[in-house]
Design goal:
The protein has 384 residues and is an all-alpha fold. The protein contains 16 helices and no strands. Helix 4 (74-94) runs antiparallel to helix 5.
């Protein structure tokens, strides 16, 4: 008991930073190296696409279970981390069978769809807005660090899977420390979660979905797109790294911005995404402008993401569930739809299509602003 109490006296920044570092190292291995690993196991491109649509879709569906049946507390959080670790272990024994490996990915996707929303809720409860970004950036550091390390040392497909298991295990240990930060906090019950409604702010959720759909071409085809326009693979890797470096800088210095109107920040970041995709559409062969487009990753991802989760935190009393739906709708459903659409429209007009999705996301944010004003007026009339 004394040991637990002493751990709860540790500054929350330390366990949260460790969790972000190992969690996004895990994500980095999964996103960057697993597609190539599966190709080495003779998976077809279509099979790889199905595998990588499975986990995001589970991230979308899982929050609905928390509306009625489950409460997201530290016990469920730790169970999700344990299942994440078990899922990565199953990857090793199932990877040579497509259907068994697909089932392991469904388990993995279900588990990771629970853990991050819980930690984001704890971080927003315990950290100031200025401190949040400086802690969250350790996730970006972990993502880049594992990418650079495995890019040099990875020699066999199974080595990548073993690294995945190791990072899942470290994430489990770091998550245990995070759970101690919230072990005595009243959690949201499923009875309280039943009052949660996406229809209360439909335009907001539509905007989050469309914004992430607009990233489908970037995440799935940016490397192919740039190398197809004469940019070398080595330079393209530098473009990726430069974008993440800009993301880290924004996360460190964005604190004062988050003290301002969060909805306005979301509009600015969404408009920046329109500009970013148009630059890639119009000037794919111009290296300087492509670096400018990558610099906008600081706004379109880092600032957008932090402003979005902070804004969601203010919209609903069911904080953890709201974070689950944000990640499920945006990175889950939006990520799956975005990747599918990008695959269908890939060509010279790819980023023009992505710019249109971002533009529609911006329109939806303005519609959401009007919706909030109307709701405030209705509440004022009822109060009278």
């Amino acid at each position: 008991m004394r040991r637990i109490q002493s751990l709860r006296l540790v500054k929350p920044e330390i366990p949260l930073a460790l969790f972000y570092f190992f969690y996004f190292s895990l994500v980095g291995i999964y996103v960057i190296f697993l597609p190539k690993i599966l190709l080495d196991f003779n998976y077809s491109n279509a099979e790889v696409g199905i595998i990588f649509a499975a986990a995001p879709l589970m991230r979308f569906f899982i929050p609905f279970a928390f509306l009625r049946f489950v409460s997201l507390d530290h016990r469920v959080f730790l169970l999700s981390l344990l299942l994440t670790f078990i899922g990565t272990c199953l990857f090793v024994v199932t990877v040579e069978n497509f259907w068994l490996y697909l089932l392991a990915n469904l388990l993995f996707g279900s588990a990771v769809g629970v853990s991050l929303p819980y930690v984001e809720t704890i971080a927003l409860k315990t950290l100031s807005k200025s401190r949040y970004g400086k802690v969250r950036l350790y996730g970006s550091i972990g993502f880049v660090a594992i990418a650079l390390w495995l890019g040099k040392v990875l020699t066999t497909p199974y080595e990548g899977l073993y690294y995945l298991i190791a990072t899942a295990l470290f994430t489990l240990f770091a998550g245990g420390c995070v759970a101690l930060l919230d072990g005595e906090t009243k959690c949201e019950t499923h009875e309280e979660n039943r009052a949660f409604s996406l229809l209360l702010y439909p335009w907001f959720w539509l905007s989050m979905l469309l914004m992430q759909i607009s990233f489908g071409g970037f995440y799935s085809f940016f490397t192919i797109y740039e190398t197809g326009h004469g940019i070398s693979l080595e330079m393209t890797s530098w473009l990726w790294s430069f974008g993440v470096a800009c993301e880290i800088i924004m996360l460190y210095f964005q604190g004062p911005l988050l003290q301002r109107d969060l909805l306005l920040l979301l509009k600015i970041a969404t408009f920046a995404a329109v500009i970013r995709w148009l630059i890639l559409y119009l000037f794919p062969e111009t290296l300087v402008l492509t670096f400018v487009a990558q610099a906008l990753h600081a706004v379109t991802f880092a600032l957008y993401y932090t402003a979005a989760i902070s804004y969601v935190f203010t919209l609903y009393s069911q904080k953890a569930l709201a974070q689950q739906f944000f990640l499920g709708i945006s990175f889950g459903l939006g990520g799956s739809i975005g990747a599918f659409i990008a695959g269908q429209v890939y060509g010279k007009n790819l980023f023009l299509v992505e710019a249109l999705f971002a533009l529609f996301a911006l329109f939806a944010l303005f519609a959401h602003t009007k919706r909030k004003i109307d709701l405030a007026r209705e509440a004022s009339c009822h109060a009278r």
